[in-house]
Amino acid sequence: MSAGLTDDQIFIRDSARNFLRDQADFDRLRKAVDGAGWDRELWASFAGELGFAGIGISEANGGAGLGPVELSLIAQELGSTLAPIPWFETAVLAATAIAEAGTEAQQATLLAPIARGEAIATLAMRDAAGQPLPDGIGPVLTKDGAGWRLTGRAHFVPFGEAADLLVVAARTAGSTGWDGISLIALPAANLKREGLTSLDLTRPLAHVDLDLAVDDDAILGEAGQAGPALRRTLAIASAILASEQVGGMARTLDETVEYSKQRVQFGRLIGSFQAMKHRMADMKLWLEAARSAAAMAADAVERNGDDMETLASSARAYCSDAYLRITADGIQLHGGIGFTWEHHAHLFFKRARGTASLLDSPAHQRELVARAIIDTE
After folding, report:
1. Model pLDDT for residues 308-345, shown as the tens digit of each residue
2. Based on CB atoms within 10 Å of each CB, which residue in 18, 193, 245, 370 is the most buried?
């Protein structure tokens, strides 16, 4: 959709779309999935040569200085191709956390290599049980003489094995809620990382073991004061992730409709059957509602509105549910071929399942929306 977009935004979207449609085809995706789980060459071109890693980073730190709306447009295109690159983790999760919590000096040091496409970064924070945030923050930061000690394990870290830089969310011992949370920037090379085989093979996960001394320079801002920054980071990331989900939904529906115009059964195109038409009409309704929710969330975080967290949570909850429904129906409406490993329908379904739990569960997102509604009455 181009309605409401500026010429510059259309150019950014089309540049990402054209590159990904040419370079990130499903044959290349399969090779990445069968190998390291991501495509280093594709990342170098997309992040460095085209500059998409620095879209949301300020100009002072080497980026383009654009906002969540532009990020959401790129995310949709990445979602439509399932491009196996750490753009969301680097350009959205980690870069936003650094920009929100870090001092000017820390931002200058950490964001410049990200903007140039020279560093892969990600956010590490989850506990083993996957509890709702902020209770689900696993690593612990304790005072240790003149410095600090970071211990524990960060679970299910997206692109955790590939990252050059980890932004670790840790809780000060004894703190609760959003209080006492710190964000620590760590070089990943010397950390013990365990790659995981997860359902979504296009977004590799890892566990990261932490037991190391940390000095004040590694802590973004002040120790124990990063709760508000992390909340805003997660709101922005939720809005952008919802847009990624929209891209996957749109691609699934487009390919399902196209298949229905080609496959013949009982002497007729399957798209002519009423049951097929009704299912695809429902898919279109879910898609357009999700598109609107994601656009509203991106606008809310762009303007830093009071409803930012609520709209981001609403979009993530709805888009997660819609993505699963659309991809499940996409498999069903493709018939027998849709259930095969060779067809890519299952990759979109697995991405739908993976994104639903990447930041927080849809159930918890709905709970946050319900609390916001109750609190305003």
Report:
1. 999 999 999 999 999 999 999 999 998 888 888 889 99
2. 245
Cβ atoms of residues 221 and 229 within 8 Å? yes
CATH H-level, domain 228-376: superfamily? Butyryl-CoA Dehydrogenase, subunit A, domain 3 (1.20.140.10)
Say which residue the tokens 């890892």 belong to: 206
Q: pLDDT tens across 87-131, in order?
A: 999 999 999 999 999 999 999 999 999 999 999 999 999 998 888
Q: Note the CATH number of domain 122-223.
A: 2.40.110.10
Q: Are strands 140-144 and 121-124 parallel, antiparallel or unpaired?
A: unpaired
Stated pTM of the model: 0.95
**Paired strand residues for 126:** 137, 155
CA angle, corner 18, sides to 260 and 41, nearest 5? 110
Residue 82 makes CB contacts below 8 A (sequence gap 6+) with 24, 29, 202, 248, 344, 347, 348, 351
Q: Cα separation of 326 and 57, whole Å?
A: 33
- For residue 340, CA distances in Å to 25, 92, 343, 351 come to 18, 33, 6, 16
Contact 367, 313 (CB under 8 A): no
Which superfamily does CATH assign the domain made up of 7-119 to? Acyl-CoA dehydrogenase/oxidase, N-terminal domain (1.10.540.10)
217: Cβ–Cβ under 8 A, 6 or more apart, which residues?
A: 106
User: Which conformational region is residue 177 in: left (phi greater than 0), alpha (psi within -120 to 50 degrees), or beta?
Assistant: left
**How far, CA to CA in Å, does 46 sit from each of 20, 72, 111?**
9, 16, 17
